[in-house]
Amino acid sequence: MYEIDRKLYERALNGNPVLVGLVGAGQMGKEIVCQIAQMQGMEIMIVVDLNTETCLNAYKAAGYDGEIVVSNDLREVNAALAAGKRVAATDFEVAIKADLIDSVIDATGNPFVGAQVALTCFNYKKHIVMMNVECDITVGPILRQMAENAGVVYSLTAGDEPGSIIEVYRFAKALGFRIVAAGKGKNNPLNIYAKPDDPEWKKKAEDRNMQVRMLIEFVDGSKTMVEMCAVSNATGLVPDIRGMHGPKCNIEDLKTVFSLKKQGGILEREGVVDFGIGNINPGVFVIVTTDNETLKEGLIQRDMGLGPNYLLLRPYHLCSCETPITVAQGVLYGESTGHPNKYLTSECLTIAKKDLKKGEVLDGIGEYCYRGSIDLYEVAREGNMLPLGLAKGCRMTQDVPIDTVLTYDMVEVPDSVLYNLRKIQDSMYKKEMVNVSAK
C-alpha cells in the first residue's frame, strides 16, 4: 500500500476515480464527505441518512456546489451518477445497488442496520468499510467469510482505534516481535453507572456537539470494551481479566505497567488487549519484546529503553478522516485495514446498569439499562451470555439485580437479520469444534 497516493492520482488522471457510497451522515459521516472532497482519485457520490437534509448538509460542508439529486429510485440514481451528479437518499440499498459504486461505508453505528448493509453489499459485489464496530463484534466472522465468498473486501476502518492498533500490531508481527499487549488510551473518566440524564454528561455532550447517548457509551466503558473486543477478534490477543485492567498510567509508564507480574507489571500473561487512563489518548500502543540479545542492544541504541519490553506508540488516530484510506486499500489492493479471524476470540458481555424488571425492554448502548464488558468468547458461550450487540430491544423474562451479566435465559431476543446471522455463526463454531474433537 506504499504507493496509494500515486495510484489514486493515476485514477484521477485517467478519469476513473474510486466511487463511494456512504450510509450514515452523522458527525463521522459528515467528516468522511469532507475528507474525500480534499482527495484526488476518489469521489463520494451517494450519501444516505434518515433525513435527506442531513445528507445535503454534509455535501454543503464539503463544498460541493453542483446539482444533487434527491431520490430513492434506482433508475434515477444510476442516471444521476452516469451524468456525474451526486445523490442524497434515505434508502441505504440505492447506495449499494447503484451500478458505478465501488465501495460502501457503513457509518451508522447501529449493528442491526450494519448486518443488512453488509449482506446487501455482498449480494451486489461491493466492498464494505464497517465503521460499525458494534456490528463487527457481534457477527464479524460470518460477515468476513461471506465477503470472501462474494469476492469483496470486508474491513474495519483506518483511524478508529481498532484499525490504528491493528496497523501497529501488523508492523510488529511482520518483524517477528513477540506481542505483550496492545491497547488504547481512554479519553474520558470511567464511570460504569453513567446515565444520559446526569446533568454533568448532558452539559459535556452539548459542549462537544454530540448525542449524550454516544458520550455515555464512552464514559461507562462500553465503547472501549467494544473496540478492544474488535482488536482481540482480529488478532487473537485476549483480555487478561474480564473488563481488562484499565490502569491509570501515562505514556512513559506503558511498557512497565503492561508487563508480566514477575517483571513488576500487572499482567498474568503476554498477548493481551487492554487500555490505560492517562495522557495516552489520542494514541494507541503495542508493547513488544524479543529474546534476541543483538536486537535488544540495537533497541537500546535506538533509545527504546533497556527492556525487556518496548513501546510502539501511534500518538494519534484520526477516526473518520482516515476512512478513505481503507476504501482505497480495498478497491486498489483487495486488502482490509483489519478484520476478524474465522471465530471470535472475545465477546462483549451485557451487564445490568440498574435493577431490571420482568417485562422491561432493553434500550440502547450508552443509555440506562446496561453496559458492555469484555471476556473470552469461550467463557461467554459456556455461560450462555447475551452479546452486547443483540441487547437492544430484548424483553426481560425475569427480574435481575444491578451488575448482573445478562444471559439468553433472562431475555426474549427479537427476531432480526443480526440475530439470525449470530445463530448461524455460533452454530458454525460448534460444528467446527465437533469436527476437531472427532479428529
Give the % helix.
25-40%
Number of β-strand runs: 16
Tell me the radius of gyration: 22 Å
Straight-line N-to-C gap:
40 Å
Topology of helices and strands:
Elements: H1 4-13, E1 18-23, H2 27-37, E2 42-48, H3 52-62, E3 68-70, H4 74-82, E4 86-89, H5 92-97, E5 103-106, H6 111-123, E6 127-130, H7 133-150, E7 154-155, H8 161-174, E8 178-185, H9 199-207, H10 212-219, H11 222-235, E9 238-239, H12 254-257, E10 272-276, E11 284-289, H13 293-301, E12 309-314, H14 323-333, E13 346-352, E14 370-376, H15 377-382, E15 395-396, E16 411-412, H16 417-438
Parallel strand pairs: 1-2, 1-5, 2-4, 3-4, 5-6, 6-7, 8-10, 9-10
Antiparallel strand pairs: 8-11, 11-12, 13-14, 15-16
Helix pairs in contact: 2-3, 6-7, 6-16, 7-11, 7-16, 8-11, 9-10
Tell me what you see in this structure.
The longest helix has 22 residues, at 417-438. α7 (133-150) packs parallel to α11, α7 crosses α16 and α8 (161-174) runs parallel beside α11. The chain starts with a helix and ends with a helix. The strands form 4 sheets. It has a 7-stranded parallel beta sheet with strand order 3-4-2-1-5-6-7, sandwiched between helices. A 5-stranded mixed beta sheet has the order 9-10-8-11-12. Strands 13-14 form a two-stranded antiparallel sheet. 49% of the residues are buried. The protein has 439 residues and is α/β, with parallel strands linked by helices. It has 16 helices and 16 strands. The chain has helices spanning 4-13, 27-37, 52-62, 74-82, 92-97, 111-123, 133-150, 161-174, 199-207, 212-219, 222-235, 254-257, 293-301, 323-333, 377-382, 417-438; strands at 18-23, 42-48, 68-70, 86-89, 103-106, 127-130, 154-155, 178-185, 238-239, 272-276, 284-289, 309-314, 346-352, 370-376, 395-396, 411-412.
